[in-house]
UniProtKB/TrEMBL annotation:
This is Beta-glucosidase. The active site is at residue 347. It comes from Marinitoga aeolica. PANTHER family: GLYCOSYL HYDROLASE (PTHR10353), LP05116P (PTHR10353:SF36). Keywords: Carbohydrate metabolism, Cellulose degradation, Glycosidase, Hydrolase, Polysaccharide degradation.
Amino acid sequence: MKRTDFPKEFKFGTATASYQIEGGIEDRSPSIWDEFSHTPGKTKNGDNGDVACDHYHRYEEDIEIMKDIGVDAYRFSISWPRVMTDGIKPNEKGIDFYQKLVDKLLENNITPFITLYHWDLPLYLYKEKNGWLNPDIANYFQDYASLMFNKLGDRVKHWITLNEPWCSAFLGYFVGEHAPGHKDFQESFYVAHNLLRSHGKAVIAFRDIVKDGKIGITNVVTKVESLSNDEKDIQAAKLVDQYINGWYHDPIVYGKYPEEAVNSLKNIKLDIPENDFDIISQTIDFFGVNYYSRQVISYDENHPLKFKHAEGPLPKTEMGWEIYPKGLYDKLVEFNNKYKLPLYITENGMAGPDKLENEQIHDDYRINYIKDHFKSTLDAIKDGVDLRGYFIWSLMDNFEWAHGYSKRFGLVYVDYNTQKRYLKDSALWYKNFLLNK
Ligand SMILES: N#[N+]C[C@@H]1[C@@H](O)[C@H](O)[C@@H](O)[C@@H]2O[C@H]12
């Protein structure tokens, strides 16, 4: 498989997120992840993003690395608390960081794709305004989005409103594994809804400000399969697919939540104002697909949503996720047929047992993972999927949320003691692939 097997305009890139790589906390106000990661017991080894990969001070070096690898595009997120103090007052120093980042990318012919929200909500908005639980958050988000569209929209033409709202809502407000660490089932549905409303308000602003741009939303897209052919397991898997995938895509395209999932939530209030879906279902230009693996599901009477995960038999990554490239093909074809929107794979990659030895990292497992998922991508394109690009997660090892720095997803190895970067064998492979070798 060669690069020239893909459409000429197909964009190969890599991706990161602000809190996971920037550090530079001295020049921004705090986010919910600053408070969460500094709360004992919330992250592995008590790791936090105070320094991370020090990208705030090393962005030029990191862009040079991307240039050397030869990526066409780079997906990164803006830190809301960096560009708006407490999420409300524009901070010119923070805005200037992203101006310089964008200009350096463009100088190097790397197309910027910006994610507005990759989980680092300004702490003030959470503490003083109740964060995503407050319907008014959509207005704060629209103000933030408008500021960024006005400041960068002349040079940045690809925008993503939210990254994985399912994680923000479900992991942040029900499971409690992510910031702000709530464990309230009902809250997680209110949060999901306000995230989608915020998405819609940002799209409305975008259409006024960046008339020649493209905007979408990125969700985690998981292949959900039933553990058995038992009707209860099949139904449980179908509902999980609706909770994870349909819940964050159907309202945008169809203007409603998935019916069976809504009907299954007997004791959940979904008192939603009717015109909310007019806001949520603003026409978008693409869906971003973050694909990592599958979930194997069986029925469980004792779970609020009547399901439980089963351990799959396939080889797994360091995250314990099965390596399942067929799932990517299946979801791309399904989404193409169901939503009829252009797609970007905005994240795909793996955490590996990466070891620095003589300034090298031999990660053949990651090269094989990427090759297998590139094959699924190419097969989907050949079968008619309107797929526009693929961003490997991640450019470099970084702060992996509750796992801290214990999981390495990067094409580039980061020695956190020295902040020295080392291209892994997978980065060298990607470089040759991009040169069509
Ligand atoms: N875990 N994991 C890796 C990766 C995470 O580092 C990203 O921030 C998320 O968008 C998504 O969950 C995927």
